[in-house]
Amino acid sequence: MQSDYGISIWGNDNYKIEGDNILINYGKKPSLLEITKKIRDKGYKGPILLRFPHLIKKQIDILFNEFKRASKEFNYKGKFRAVFPLKVNQFPNFVNEIVKVSNGYNYGLEAGSKAELIIAMAKTPIGAPITVNGFKDKEMIALCFIAAKSGHDITVTIEGLNELKTIIEVNKEFNANSKSPVAPKIGMRIRLHSSGIGTWAKSGGYSSKFGLTSTELLEACDMLEKENLIDNFSMIHFHIGSQMEEISPLKKALREAGNIYADLKKQGANALTSINIGGGLAVEYSQVQKNENRNYSIKEFANDVIYFMQEIAKNKGVKEPDIYTESGRFIAAHHSILVAPVLELFSQEYNEKSLRLKKKNPPLIEELYDLYKSINKNSAREYLHDAIDHLDSLLTLFDLGYIDLEDRSNTEILVNLIIKKAIKLLAQDNSDELTKLQNKFQEKYLVNFSIFQSLPDFWGLGQTFPIMPISHLSKKPTQAASIWDITCDSDGEISYDAKAPLKLHDVDVEKEEYFLAFFLTGAYQEVLGMKHNLFSHPTEAIVRFNENGDYEFDSILEAQNLMDILDDLDYDIGAIDKKLKSNIEESNLIDDEEKSIILGKLYLYLSENSYLKTIQASKV
Ligand SMILES: Cc1ncc(COP(=O)(O)O)c(C=O)c1O
Q1: What burial letters (b/e) apply to 279-318, b meaning 16+ CB within 10 Å?
Q2: What is the sign of the dihedral through the CA atoms of 524, 526, 527 and 532?
Q3: Is the Cβ atom of 249 under 6 angstroms away from ligand 1?
C-alpha cells in the first residue's frame, strides 16, 4: 500500500493525492510537480518556495467566520477584530498578499519593532487596526504618534511604566501646541500568573519578560488620569505563547484577563473596551496520528473566548469587551511550501556496475554474490540474515589484513544490494524485524536546500514539518529516509525517526527527478532562516489562481546571486570584482584567449545563486 504521508492530519484539505501526484486542492487542481516543473522550465533551479495566497485567505476566512459564528450563537455584543503579527513573516511577497486577500475584513497588522512599524504604517489600510508591542524607545513611540496623526487606528501596548512615562513626554511634544491633539490609543500588557504550555510557554506567566503586574496596572491608570490621557487607555493585552498545544492554559488566562478588564473598568477606565488575546493558535504539524500537536479546534477556541468574556462581563456588570487576536502561525504557516530536488541517494554508489570482482574472490564474497543473484521472495529473509552475518565477518577479515580494499568495497556493494532487494521483496511484510532492519539501513537523501535557511525551527527547537515526495505516490515507499541538506554542517540533517517514520522511494536520480516538499513553512521560518554557509533565501514564487481556476506565477524572485550575498555582509564587492578580474588577467598560467573565456565563466557564476546547479551529470 502506498503512503499518504499523514496528509489527512496536517493537510487541512488543501491537498489531494491522485495517482502518482499530490494536487493543490483548489481551482483546476494542478499537481505540485507540474507547478514545480513549470518554474524550473523558466530556468530557476535549486529549492523553490511556493506561496499560495488562496491559503492565506482561507485561514483569515476561518478565523473571522468562527468568531462571527460564536458571537452569533452566544449573542455576544462586543466586536471581533484581528491583526497579523509581522514577526511571523515580514517578507513583501507575503505581506502584500495578506493585505490584498484580507480586503473586506478590516484586518490590521501588529508591529514589534521600528522597522515592522514602518511596514504596518505603510501597508495597513486606514481604518484597520495597528497594534504595537515589544520594548519601545522614544523614537518608536513618536512613530506611533505620527501614525495616529496620519489617520491610523493605532494602539501602543506598554510593557512597563517607563514606556508610559515616554508616551506622556512624547504626547506633550506632539500635542502641547496642537489645536486638535491626536494620540495613539494605549494598551497595557498584563502579566498573567497563568502561563502557557509548550515550547513558547515562557511568553506568559509571572516570570515572563513582558507585561505589568497588577500594582503597576493601577499605578499606570493613576498616571494616565493625572495626565488627562485615561480616555486613551482602550485595551489590555496578553499573549501566553506560540503554538499553544492545549486549550486549558487559554481558559485560565481568559478568566484572569477578563477579571482584570472588569475591575479596571470599575476603577474608572471608562475607555477600556478591548481585550487583545495575542496569538498562540496552534497548527497541526504532525504526520502521525498519535503525535498530534493540538488538542482543540478553532471552533472550540472561538467558543471559549466568547463564552468566558461574556460570563465575566455579565457577572461583574460591565460591557462585553471587543476581542482582538494576533494569531500569526495559524494564518501564515499553511501558505508556503518549499520544494527541493533530491541530488543523490547515498546508496546509489552501491550499484552492480561498481563491483570490482576478481578472477578469484574470497569465498564469503563469492557466497554474497550468489545470494544476490538468487534471492527471491521465499529466500529473502534467510539471505538477508546471511548477508548481514557475512558483512560482519568480512569487515573483521579486512581489519586483520586478510582481504584488501577492493574486497571490502565489493562486500559493501553486495550487502547493500541484497538488503535493498530483500526489503523490496518483503514489502508486504510488516514484521518488527523488517522494520528494525529498515531503520538500521536507512537511505540518506541529499537534498538541495539548507535546513538552517529554510527550517530553522527544526534546527533550533526540533520542530518537525510535514515532508513528502511530490511524485511516485502510487508506489509504496520502501526506504527509511534520513535527509541531508547541502550545508557543510552535521546538524544539517533530519534523521530518521522510528516514531514518526519517513519512508521515501528508491529512485535513480540520474535517470529521473525526485523532489521533496516541506509543508507549513510560512510562519517564522523565513526571517529566522540564517545564511549558514551563505545559502540565502531560496527562489520564491507566488502561485495565484484566477476566477477560471487556472494558475499563474507572480513576483518570481530568484535567490540572491553570489555578489549580492557578499554585499549583504558588507564586503566591498567592487574590490572583490576587481581582485578576481586582475588575478585572471595577470595570471601567467593562462594565455590571452583563454583569459577571456575564463572571465566570461567567472561572471556567469557570480550572477548565479549558491544552491547547487549541477551534480554529476544531472541538472538540479
Ligand atoms: C505579542 C504577540 N502576539 C502575537 C504573536 C503570534 O503568535 P502566534 O504566531 O503563535 O499566533 C506573538 C508571538 O510570539 C507575540 O509575541
Answers
A1: bbbbbbbbbeeeeebbebebeebbbbbbbbbbebbeeeeb
A2: positive
A3: no
Instruction: Compute, in angstroms, the gap from residue 25 CA to the centroid of ligand 1.
Output: 29
Ligand 1 pocket member 240 (CB < 6 A)? no
DSSP 29: -
Contact 190, 237 (CB under 8 A): yes
Nearest alpha carbon, ligand 1 atom 5 = 279
What is the best residue among 158, 210, 242 to mutate for testing ligand 1's pocket, by most ligand atoms within 8 Å of CB?
Answer: 242
Phi, psi of 429, deg, nearest 5: -85, 120
The Cα angle at residue 17 between residues 522 and 446, in degrees rounded to 5: 60
Dig out the grid coordinates for 606 from the structure.
557570480
How far apart CA 227 and CA 235 sit, in angstroms, is 18
> Does the reported pTM lie above 0.85?
yes
pLDDT tens digits for range 47-105: 999 999 999 999 999 999 999 999 999 999 999 999 999 999 999 999 999 999 999 99
Q: Which of 510, 480, 494 is nearest to 341 (CA)?
A: 510
What type of residue sits at position 224?
L
Q: pLDDT digit string (tens) for 230-257?
A: 999 999 999 999 999 999 999 999 999 9
| 326 ligand 1 Cβ < 6 A | yes
Cell numbers for 287, please give them. 504526520
> Could you please report the per-residue DSSP string of 434-489?
HHHHHHHTPEEEEESS-HHHH-HHHHHH-----EEESS-TTSPP-EEEEEE-SSS-
Q: What is the dihedral of CA 366, 367, 373, 379, to 10 degrees?
A: 180
- For residue 605, which amino acid is it? Y
Q: Is 620 exposed, middle or buried (0-12, 13-18, 19+ CB in 10 A)?
A: buried
Cα–Cα dist 549/331, whole Å: 23
Q: Copy the grid coordinates of residue 379.
A: 529466500
* Ramachandran area for residue 104 (φ above 0: left; ψ -120 to 50: alpha; else beta): left
Q: Write the DSSP assignment of 170-195 as a string of letters.
A: HHHHHHTT-SS----EEEEEB--SS-
If phi > 0 it is left, if psi is from -120 to 50 it is alpha, else beta; for residue 490 that is: alpha
Residue 286 CA to residue 293 CA, distance in Å, equals 6
Mean pLDDT score, 219-232:
95
What is the sign, positive or negative, of the torsion defined by CA atoms of 405, 410, 411, 416? positive
